[in-house]
Task: structure prediction
Amino acid sequence: MSKHPFSQMPDAAGYFGEYGGQLIPPELKQVMDEIDHAYEEIRQQPEFQQELADLFSDYVGRPSPIFYARRLSEKLGGARIFLKREDLNHTGAHKINHCLGEALLAKYMGKTKVIAETGAGQHGVALATACALVGIPCEIHMGQVDIEKEAPNVTKMKILGCTLVSVTRGTATLKDAVDSAFEEYLKDPHNFIYAIGSVVGPHPFPKMVRDFQSIIGREAREQFLQREGRLPDYVTACVGGGSNAIGMFTAFLEDDDVALVGVEPAGLGLDSGKHAATMTLGKSSALHGMKCYVLEQDDGTTMPVHSIASGLDYPGVGPQHCYLKDIGRVRYESATDEECLNAFMNLSRVEGIIPALESSHAVAWAMRTAPTLDRDQCILVNLSGRGDKDADFVARKLGL
Ligand SMILES: *Cc1c(COP(=O)(O)O)cnc(C)c1O
Result:
């Protein structure tokens, strides 16, 4: 059987086409290479695979189901909409998948502290959870703006026993938290490990996080085939850094008849200057140790980005997505804050499922697209997380 090139990505230097790599100082490159070697070794060990598989089933609650959103589909007319329910995972989102992988890897490598940044607080909660379970100290850096917006997650992180660092520099959001966490990591990179929260950063993180997340698409493809006897016509997911999307897309990359659509936050509108539509409006550049599309201002500095969903508020994007865009395998579109809120309320009231604001972007795309398609066509949406964390914010915003 011939292997499709997609399964061999990235190359040994961490490149997906021209994107990715390790744009970091030599000392750090050495540490990243150590992590890569350890990962490649550990992932072959049956004990590691078994431990991860057991945690996925008994701790996370996998496989997450696929749900046919009948009432929403019938209300819209056109294609049938299905949801991959990552919102039902322990901790309420897809992020637990890679956090367990990273925490286990840290344990196998004998690291003494796991460090990370968080945007919406979902990565922080998932990582603090995984570290509590594995028994390893955990330090989370979070922008002050996000801390105020995401109070429930902040409280959870404290209860779970992690050290929380409030970041006030810059726009005090996700990008600044990344910078701050990275500085702490650089103090002792041999004993610490930086658990990146998405498929971004220097090699091997885009590869590792993708591998841990690819369980989503492997399950979804099989589940969909089993229940419908065919594959979906469209598979869609929201794109911040791109981990839930790549986790969903990976199993479908070789299915040429399945259209893959990543949905970015258009914020207040693509021409408002207040968005985080990196794939749509960014250009090839460098950020956080990788080559990728970046939203930049005219003077070459990183653009302050905006999205109603903290978890999508990032001016870069995973290198594999950049590659998949360039070769035309994945289409990247966007949804505004307003469309996102509308999708959030619709899914809540028509199906009784409160989605994360991040995931609502993918739901918004499906709601916009379904009426343009026939009834025998199917859209599979990755519902990356649940909206409990956003409920108060939305209620205030809409005056409920
Ligand atoms: C963090 C988060 C995202 C965005 O991250 P990706 O790496 O793009 O997946 C999306 N959905 C939810 C629920 C999140 O918590």
